[in-house]
Structures are given as C-alpha cells and as structure tokens.
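Risk register update: the risk of archive-format incompatibility is retired. Evidence:
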Amino acid sequence: MRLSWIKVVDLYGRFNHHVELKHEGMTIIHSPNGLGKSTLVRMVCLAFGGGWAELEYIPFARLEFGFEEGRKLVFKRDEGLQATLIDGGELIAMGVDDVMEMLSVIYLGPQRLFLEQDEGCFVSALDIHSENLAVECREAMERAEEEWENDPDNGMPPGDDAERGLSEARGRMDLARQAGLEPRLPPRPGEPDLLSRDPDDWGPATMRALDRLRRAADVLYPTSESLSALMDMFNPMIFRKSLSIDPLSGMVVALEGGGTIPLSMLSSGEKHLLLLLYVMLFEATPGGMVIIDEPETSMHVTWQQRLASLFLSIGRARGLQLVMATHSPQVVHDRWDLTEELVV
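Archived output:
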C-alpha cells in the first residue's frame, strides 16, 4: 500500500499543507524555516508508527492520507484523536494497530546518529547497526550451512537447466565471498567440488551437490546483495578509507595505508551517510516508506548533490517510497521535478 498525498489542516492553527507524493518514488519537501516541514514528516511517522500520544500533542485540526488505491485515512480530534478509513462509501474506525498494519514507516531525524537505549542513556546508532549486521551475516551463513547439509528430495534434472543453475549458484557464491560471507561448505565424498571445477558428468552425485549448492547460495543472496550495495555506494564517496564487513565484528573501516579505525572516528558526514544507506538497505521494509529529515547534515555540497540519485537507486531496487525534508538546494540539485514546496 502506497501513499499518494498527505494533507494537514490548521497545523499550529495557521498552516494548511497538501503534499503530492511523486510517482518516481522520491519526494523532496522544502520550505522556509517555521512552516512546519519537519513537523509534517514527523507526523507521518507518528501516525503509522503507533505514536498517537505524541501526535495528539501537536496542534492541528485534521490530518489526511490518500492512498493509490483510492482509500483515505483521516485523523481528527473528537474527544481525543480519532482515525477513520474511508473506503468508497464505507467509513471504518481504525485503532493504532490497524493503522500500523497499513504502512511501514521509518523516520530518520536530524539526531539520527544516537539511539536511546535506556531512559536518558544514548548510544551510537552505527555501533548498534554494526552489531546487528554481524548477527545477520552469521545467521545467513548458518542457514546456508544447514541447507548444504540437508539432502534434497529430488535432484535437478540434467542438461541446460543444470548448467545454468551451476553458473547462477557460482555467481551468487562469488558475490557472498566478496561481501565477506564464507560459510563452510565442504564437498562430500564421491561428489564433485562444484565451486572449484566443472563436473565430469551430470550424474546423481553431481545433481545432489548442485541442489545443495543452489539452496545455500539462495539463502546467502539477499544479505550478500545488500552488503555489496552498501559497500559499492559508500566506498566511492569516502577518501583513503574503505568499508568492509566482518561477520564477527560487523562494519570495519580500513585505512589506505594499513590498519583500521573504529566507526566513531569517521567524520560526522561519513557517519550520517553510512547510517542512511544501512537503514534503507537493511531495515526498511520493501514497499514501505523511509522519511529523512535534513539528509544533508554535515555533508559537503558535492555529497549533497549526489544524495537524490543515490537514494533513488535504492528506492527503486527495494520498492521504497522516500520522503526527504530539506533546506538545501544542493540536495535537490537537478531534480526539481521531485520537489514539493510548503507555502503560507
């Protein structure tokens, strides 16, 4: 389910805004300070993320969301905050859980580099994401090893399908290795090592090995594809450093001259960029929405000019709707067709 537009009436008792979301998958909202740009995008997250208690504190009369399917979700104040789904001629009262199921929304605000772990205790978001990424890598390798150990019910039929299947499995295993994922897949006695050489024949032993290899490669592919995308997008942007992934320690930043540095020693702009890429690639739900307030924080203008195309490529690949709120014309760069301006 995708949003088509967002509307708020009497925000702070004075602003009425209507934002049409762009069909290309990214909408860039801009305006002068004080018109409620950051508040509006935050309200989207609160509405669909279950933060109704906080949403109720924001002064507004009516908040509306239009969906591509023609349905409309309306929030208004009537002895408390009430939500109603308008589907054709039917009015359906919606609770918090009902609305949360309609759309997955991730909000990345200006203070996104830190997460509140306990009340009043903040930790580095990148350190937490790095730990989570290491866990995901280890789990992917464990699942691949389990698939390798499981015997197939039926082997693949010999012929062209088998040859194509071997080529695809090898390609996915190469991608996994390049991304840092190397599960233990020892060949069994009597079976060829399909990762190192072509089979002498396509008999039953070869087909069993191929079936297990394909299943292991398929398990690794989603994680390794996202890891490769993260490194391919981040590494060309940074200077004399490179990011790699270690399944034990997570994100590793190596210096050009040798040695490594902790994530805390990246520049502020590098941290923001790495975090944004990570969240879109690993945490955003395919088909969901990612909202970024001030994506340009701490970034040089040359980086700002590349953000829209960089994020659009992720959005297309993941089917995401992206909404950015910004003060920077450099973020817009040459994509004014993606902008929506808030006016008085």
